[in-house]
Amino acid sequence: MVEMDKRVEVLLETVPALQKYAGKVIVVKYGGNAMINEELKDAVVRDIALLHRLGAKVVLSHGGGPGINAMLDKLQIPTRFINGLRHTSEDTMRVVEMVLVGQVNTELVGRINAAGGCAVGLSGVSGDIYHCHQRDEALGFVGDIDYVDASAVHAVLDAGFIPVVAPVGTDGKGHTYNINGDTAAGKLASALGAEKLVLLTDIEGLCNDIKLRDVIGYLNVADVPMLKERGTIAGGMIPKIDCCVQAIAEGVGSVHIIDGRMPHSLLHEALGEEFGTVIGTTGPSVGIK
Prior knowledge:
Blueprint: H1 2-19, E1 25-30, H2 38-53, E2 57-62, H3 65-74, E3 81-82, E4 85-86, H4 90-114, E5 119-123, E6 130-134, E7 143-148, H5 151-158, E8 162-166, E9 168-170, E10 176-178, H6 181-192, E11 196-201, E12 218-220, H7 224-230, H8 237-249, E13 254-259, H9 265-270, E14 277-280
Helix pairs in contact: 2-4, 3-4, 6-8
């Protein structure tokens, strides 16, 4: 009886806190090492399914870098990154489509459904969600988004499903492009007028020194240029922070970079636990050294 009373008390405390997102759009970007750990993968999809059942309009925008790297290695196709972006040859692009759309997207949809959610898989080509053009010939088939048509995503949300979107775009002429997963998630959050964008990563947040793991708790967007000059924001963190800054500028309510390796980190964040890096404009940065 005592144990049951504790469970009831927990429910009374947590359910109202989570229901504040009822009817609100939350875009979750899921990628990194959290995608290759089975226990973490289960925790993420269970969090998403729970938030959905409590009324939140959750959109899962995923990456798939580890899976792409593994398949490229298996096929002996070399991997190269330029300023945090994957150089995408024609052969690499075929692998990107195969892994992101055919493998990762399908697996995530199945896992969410098994966890009690109702998910529908989409790619950025579906309904011309991510209309893009080639960024630079030096990067190959890497796309820059011209605009986001969120009609298909809205239709899925309005039907009561969880959209799961892969970051592959099209120029509308039959060509497909690899889009940075963080950039795609930020643009999608903006187009949907999301209440929140949460980036699940494989580090604790934006750190002053990655070796020390000293996280910057709050980052005012005004300090981003300075941190880039210092090299604090570098490599793969550049497109991640850029997408956050742009999402804030385009009206997304809040942006949070959190450690997706922590079990149920999405629920911890939704319940207001302070960890990771919050990005915004409402106050001075906290934690910059």
